[in-house]
Design brief:
Protein name: Bacteriophage phiJL001 Gp84 C-terminal domain-containing protein
CATH topology of the largest domain: Pnp Oxidase, Chain A
Pfam families: Phage_BR0599, Phage_phiJL001_Gp84_N
Helix content: under 10%
Order of helices and strands: HEEEEEEEEHEEEEEEEH
Shape: globular
Structural class: mainly beta
Number of strands: 15
CATH architecture of the largest domain: Roll
Organism: Halopseudomonas phragmitis
CATH class of the largest domain: Mainly Beta
Strand content: 25-35%
Radius of gyration: 24 Å
């Protein structure tokens, strides 16, 4: 029988929901069944305690349309949030099928926005659908003395790879990472930049640098989740001022701010400007 036929039948339906989480090439596959489900070369795992959701809602309201998945507290994909928000997006694709079929039907696409543990033995994964994302307001690009680009993005154009410093971790103290490999740079060189470290499968986690002084890299949010030894990639930061853009990165031609912007608005109601 087809999916539609079993979906509309009186007693032939055996619904199963498939959940596919992904970050880069990393995959976490789960199903709502009581046994593993194989689709082609992929195996959607059944976990002890079960994985479930209250259903997909499409109301037009982003908060009401949040898709929540409940699973055991030790669910592998949820552990990415134990030390804080992952650096890169974790995408979710949901499929529906009936047990015995091999033809899952697409149901929802989105991303994981947060994870919490409402009980010692349960986790709740909150997801936002792509439809809800499109209703979110976009960023504005205002007139500003500072640059409105992000260092290293296509609008900025600076290639950060030649500026990267490969550093060995000497110690961490919960607030900062210490490495002798950053002492050759003036204090503040890495302030506003970030560190990153490998987590496997070509993926990296990152943490932004709040302040740099001598061997110390003070991290925004502390060092939870940062390895206590090994190597880091350290990237410089920018204060988005024209002088820094020119002297530090030689990128003044692509500066997106207006350094000589008048301090008063011509629309402040004063006839004399």
């Amino acid at each position: 029988m087809t999916f539609d036929a079993r979906e509309s039948s009186t007693a032939q339906g055996q619904p199963v929901r498939l959940y596919s989480f992904s970050r880069g090439v990393m995959r976490w596959l789960y199903c709502s069944a009581d046994r593993d489900i194989s689709i082609g070369t992929q195996v959607y795992r059944a976990v002890r305690g079960g994985v479930s959701d209250p259903g997909i809602r499409i109301t037009g309201d982003a908060r009401s349309d949040r898709f929540e998945i409940t699973g055991p507290a030790d669910l592998s994909v949820a552990q990415l949030w134990r030390a804080g928000q992952p650096s890169n997006e974790v995408a979710l694709t949901v499929f529906d099928m009936h047990y015995g079929d091999n033809d899952p039907v697409f149901a929802l696409a989105g991303r994981v926005s947060s994870v919490n543990w409402p009980a010692l033995d349960r986790c709740r994964i909150v997801c936002v659908s792509r439809d809800a994302e499109m209703a979110e307001p976009g960023l504005t690009d205002p007139y500003s003395r500072t640059c409105t680009a992000v260092l290293g993005d296509p609008r900025c154009g600076v290639d950060l790879n030649p500026l990267r410093v490969d550093a060995q971790i000497q110690s961490i103290d919960g607030i900062a990472v210490y490495s002798a490999d950053v002492t050759g740079y003036p204090d503040g060189w890495f302030t506003g930049g970030y560190i990153e470290w490998p987590i496997g499968s070509g993926e990296f986690d990152r943490r932004f640098i709040e302040a740099h002084s001598s061997t110390q890299l003070k991290l925004l949010g502390g060092t939870a989740g940062v390895p206590v030894s090994g190597s880091l990639r350290v990237y410089p930061g920018c204060d988005f001022l024209f002088g820094t853009c020119t002297s530090k990165f030689g990128n003044g031609d692509r500066f997106r701010g207006i350094p000589n912007l008048e301090g008063r608005s011509p629309f402040d109601g004063n006839a004399v400007w």
